[in-house]
Design a protein that fits this description.
The structure holds two protein chains of two kinds. Chain A is mainly alpha-helical. Chain A has helices spanning 5-25, 29-64, 79-82, 95-115, 122-150, 159-184, and strands at residues 89-90, 93-94. The N and C termini of chain A lie far apart (48 Å). Chain B has six helices and nine strands. Classes of the chains: A mainly alpha, B alpha+beta.
Chain lengths: 188, 229
């Protein structure tokens, strides 16, 4: 079985982001908060890149009817998920674009906090980050449901879509921890 | 010191240290730059394909239940596309016709479609998508679709006519059930009948709405594009 290099790279990104979050939990004060924010940034960058990748797969399938960027047969594949005209878009917008826009917002919120964690809006930005992450959860649940039950030949699992979903969940956990630090006085 | 300067100084000393708007603007610019770079990389890897019903665009794909004389089975338009097709090369062109079985113009067009199929059936694949216009008396169902296609007795085509009386022959091609009008938005269907011609690779070659001024009809379009006349 050939090694899927992009998938391995995304998994490595998720592992780094998780390791940063674990490390941050054991560190107190500003250094711990900074590491936690780095973890959130890493999750959102992996989300951005995987969303971009799924959008490229979407375009590739439209263009040639198939793609070399992801398997198109078997349980774990993209063709039947991203290539399904009934489910591969949200009101005509490909899910990859939706993911790019969503992770951009998450990245912006955490980057702002990372650049100035003492700003007067830092408290509200930690809340916005958590709420924005939570807003994505119903979409993740819906898309997993679609993958497993609705697409042609279901169930299927789209690996790059799953990377994006895991990125969101990882970000959400970190956003929760970040907000907890802010409210418990462990911020700095 | 003015009152405004004094208030500004109090705010600076009382509030947390930070650079506020400047930081958020910088973060927004960095985010925009990163997202733009990812989008540019996507464009290089796999350029955007324009999807739509206009000539030169990739025809909107859909999947739905279809009837070809036997059981209703799943049908996907893009399964007909031959993506490796080159101009002047072999491959079936595709006629996509939208009808409502209760629409009198669709009823009349049954004969034209039979003629086109008998003339071009070897080079063109025909697909009829049946919708239900939101007009009183236009209620349809699968029995009516089957009877309209097969020209078999069923009271209800063209509102209250017998489907067996439809002009033309029985249609030996696939009829797709889109009574819920799931595809009409993507296809921008203004009404029925609507008949478009697709290249074998799925690119829209002829859309009647773009030929209202020159008066070209589907017969002439097929002759010109498929027949090379």
């Amino acid at each position: 079985m050939a090694v899927d290099v992009p998938l391995m790279a995304f998994l490595a990104g998720l592992a780094i982001a998780t390791a940063l979050a674990v490390r941050a939990r054991s560190r107190e004060g500003e250094a711990g908060t900074m590491t936690m924010l780095d973890s959130g940034l890493a999750f959102s960058v992996v989300g951005l890149l995987s969303s971009g990748w799924t959008y490229a797969i979407h375009n590739s399938i439209l263009d040639s009817g198939d793609t070399t960027m992801c398997a198109s047969e078997g349980l774990v594949q993209c063709g039947s998920v991203i290539g399904d005209p009934d489910w591969n878009n949200l009101f005509g917008i490909p899910w990859g674009i939706t993911g790019l826009l969503s992770f951009s917002l998450l990245f912006f919120l955490f980057l702002s906090l990372r650049m100035d964690m003492h700003a007067k809006w830092a408290d509200s930005f930690t809340t916005y980050s958590l709420l924005a992450g939570l807003a994505g959860v119903p979409f993740v649940i819906f898309l997993v449901f679609v993958e497993l039950t609705q697409v042609e030949g279901a169930p299927h699992i789209c690996p790059y879509c799953t990377i994006a979903h895991l990125s969101l969940i990882g970000f959400l956990v970190v956003a929760h921890l970040v907000r907890g630090r802010k409210q418990s006085g462990m911020w700095a | 010191m003015s009152r405004v300067q004094s208030m500004a100084r109090r705010r600076r000393t009382a509030g947390p240290k930070g650079r506020d708007d400047e930081v958020r603007l910088t973060a927004a610019l960095v985010t925009f730059a990163l997202t733009s770079m990812i989008l540019m990389a996507v464009m290089l890897l796999a350029p955007v394909v324009k999807v739509g019903p206009s000539e030169g665009e990739l025809a909107p794909d859909f999947s739905a239940q279809s009837y070809s004389g036997g059981a209703w089975v799943n049908f996907r338009l893009s399964d007909l596309f031959n993506k490796s097709w080159e101009p002047e090369g072999d491959g079936d062109w595709i006629v996509v016709q939208y009808i409502d079985t209760d629409c009198p113009y669709c009823w009349s067009e049954g004969e034209l479609m039979s003629q086109l199929h008998s003339q071009w059936g070897d080079e063109v694949t025909f697909v009829t998508v049946v919708v239900e216009l939101g007009i009183q008396g236009h209620e349809s169902n699968r029995e009516e679709i089957e009877a309209f296609r097969d020209k078999t007795p069923y009271d209800g085509c063209k509102t209250n006519s017998d489907c067996a009386d439809r002009p033309g022959d029985p249609h030996p091609w696939v009829y797709v059930d889109d009574l819920n009008e799931k595809t009409t938005g993507d296809w921008e269907i203004p009404g029925t009948p609507f008949t478009a011609l697709l290249q074998p690779d799925g690119i829209v070659a002829w859309n009647p709405l773009q030929h209202e001024n020159d008066g070209e009809g589907i017969e002439t379009a097929i002759q010109r594009l498929v027949g090379g006349a």
